[in-house]
Design a protein that fits this description.
The protein is an alpha/beta fold and about 180 residues long. It has five helices and 16 strands.
Length: about 180
């Protein structure tokens, strides 16, 4: 392990951020291209009950919780159950997925949602508790139609040379009527 890799691993441990490699060692199974956003919480004690497919994004502060200790004081037992998440799934910021949930392939879960039951493939779900609100095809179609009416940047504006407070202020004003799109 190189010095930079070791330093990153040590910093991540210090701030409590696990890497995909750390989670694999704890038994979590995942496919290729897993993106763990900052502050993502994987139930470390029960990571072996969590399975993620290919091309999964856990946005900032997503929580995957494979146990429920709510009745432990009364029964002496904690419920544990697998979490299965398919391929090409996006979980928005702050999503909580509870024990026993299966999320199919090609799914988007909206920010702040609490997923208490299964979400079928090819759908979008939002809310607390999360419920299906659209097919993925319909949702993407609406986003594409909106994009046609909006400005699309060739790259994220904050990566452009010379980006600074003045540029940011101008962009906020320009995008106040609905936003834009960037890769």
């Amino acid at each position: 392990m190189g010095a930079r890799t070791l330093a990153t691993a040590l910093r991540n441990r210090f701030i409590g951020r696990r890497t995909a490699e750390d989670l694999r060692r704890l038994g979590m199974v995942h496919g290729r291209d897993l993106h763990l956003g900052p502050g993502a919480i994987i139930d470390e004690d029960f990571a072996y009950l969590i399975e993620l497919g290919d091309d999964v994004t856990l946005a900032p502060r997503v929580s995957l919780i494979a146990h429920d200790a709510s009745t432990k004081v009364h029964t002496g037992l904690t419920r544990i159950a697998p979490i299965r998440i398919g391929s090409r799934v996006f979980l928005g910021a702050g999503v909580i997925v509870l024990p026993g949930v299966t999320i199919g392939d090609d799914v988007i879960i909206g920010a702040g949602s609490v997923v208490t039951r299964d979400v079928p493939s090819g759908h979008v779900a939002v809310g607390n508790p999360a419920s299906v609100v659209a097919t993925l095809t319909d949702f993407i179609g609406r986003r594409e139609a909106a994009r046609e009416q909006a400005h699309t940047f060739a790259r994220p504006p904050h990566l452009e040379p010379g980006f600074g407070p003045a540029t940011a202020a101008g962009l906020r004003a320009d995008l106040a009527d609905g936003g834009a799109y960037c890769p």
